[in-house]
Write a structure and sequence with these properties.
- By secondary structure, the protein is α+β, with helices and mostly antiparallel strands.
- The chain has 3 domains: 85 residues, no CATH class; 114 residues, Tetrahydropterin Synthase, Chain A; 53 residues, no CATH class.
- Helix content is 47%, strand content 21%.
- The strands form 3 sheets. Strands 7, 8, 9 and 10 form a 4-stranded antiparallel sheet that branches. Strands 1-5-2 form a 3-stranded antiparallel sheet. Strands 4-3-6 form a 3-stranded antiparallel sheet, with no helix packed on it.
- β3 and β4 form a beta hairpin.
- α1 runs antiparallel to α2, α4 runs antiparallel to α5 and α6 packs antiparallel against α7.
- The chain is rod-shaped and about 135 Å long.
Length: 296
């Protein structure tokens, strides 16, 4: 069974200053008649004047900027007033004020599994505001509690939809996968979209949503850190070796073009080995003087 939504509509209200002036006129007129002509017919007019004045004063209420008032008549929704300042509506209307300002909250740190099943901790900062006051008031029991619950569900679902990080070599197909760590903009956009879908039933708009905390769970944080360090070392070594090979190739090519030395295959192999050791070593090279030849 689907719940019929209640859409916001504009209420018919008036300026409170106008009715304040009218109420004062009726009040002063009634007081003047009472003091000058306290006769039988005048008493009736005095009573009517006081009632009219009370009617004008009873219907007044005040709205601040970014505040709205829902008007109900014996449980029936009559509309929403968003005009700020001193306002007036039927005194029999029940007036419930609701804020349409932006709200901000940080979700709790949630411990969930990512797409690959790794336990992680995740939290988000969400900015939202009420867009449809009728839906927020009548379609959900408590829209603030609704936001908190749905936000937690959305963050959990987001964590299950992405991997924390990928461990593939650059250039491979899986290395371009959007992850929680690398795809900040895409992940934030996905979070905002899912939150908006969940909040739509309550007439709430998501202004912004971003992750504020992302880490591996403590039980695997040490292991994952060592893995990341090992992969960083491997990646650095790969770049060093690739650069060294290019430098060796350039050196051999330069020697051959200039005719500085003639190298056979064995001497070329020895030179390549020595250059790679020098270029790839973590320590400064220590020169060794060879007084003989490779063949002695």
């Amino acid at each position: 069974m689907t719940i019929q939504s209640t859409e916001e509509r504009l209420a018919k209200t008036g300026s409170g200053f106008v009715y304040l002036a009218i109420g004062l006129v009726f009040l002063l007129a009634a007081i003047g008649l009472l003091l000058t002509r306290p006769t039988g017919l005048t008493i009736v007019l005095v009573v009517l004047g006081f009632l009219a004045s009370a009617w004008c004063f009873a219907g007044m209420y005040m709205l601040q900027p970014n505040q709205a008032a829902l008007l109900l008549l014996f449980g029936s929704y009559r509309g929403t007033d968003r005009e700020r300042g001193l306002r007036w509506a039927n005194p029999f209307y029940a007036k419930t004020k609701i804020s349409v300002r932006a709200h901000n909250f940080n979700s709790e740190k949630l411990k969930v599994n990512d797409l690959r099943g790794n336990p992680i901790e995740i939290a988000a900062a969400i900015v939202w505001r009420v867009d449809d006051t009728a839906m927020a008031s009548f379609d959900v029991e408590d829209y603030e509690a609704y936001v908190l619950t749905q936000a937690e569900s959305a963050v959990r679902h987001l964590a299950l939809s992405y991997a924390y990080d990928n461990f593939e070599e650059p250039g491979t197909a899986e290395s371009t996968e959007v992850t929680l760590r690398s795809g900040t903009e895409q992940v934030s956009a996905a979070l905002r979209e899912e939150l908006q879908q969940r909040f739509a039933q309550a007439g709430i708009v998501v202004v912004d949503a971003k992750l504020t905390h992302l880490a591996y769970a403590p039980e695997i944080a040490g292991t994952m850190l060592r893995r990341q360090q090992a992969e960083a070392v491997i990646a650095a070594r790969s770049k060093i070796v690739a650069g060294a090979v290019g430098m060796v190739e350039m050196a051999l090519k330069g020697l051959a073009e200039r005719g500085l030395v003639q190298l056979d295959d064995e001497r070329r192999a020895a030179m390549v080995s020595n250059l790679l050791v020098v270029l790839c070593s973590d320590h400064d090279a220590q020169p060794v003087v060879n007084a003989g030849t490779l063949y002695n």
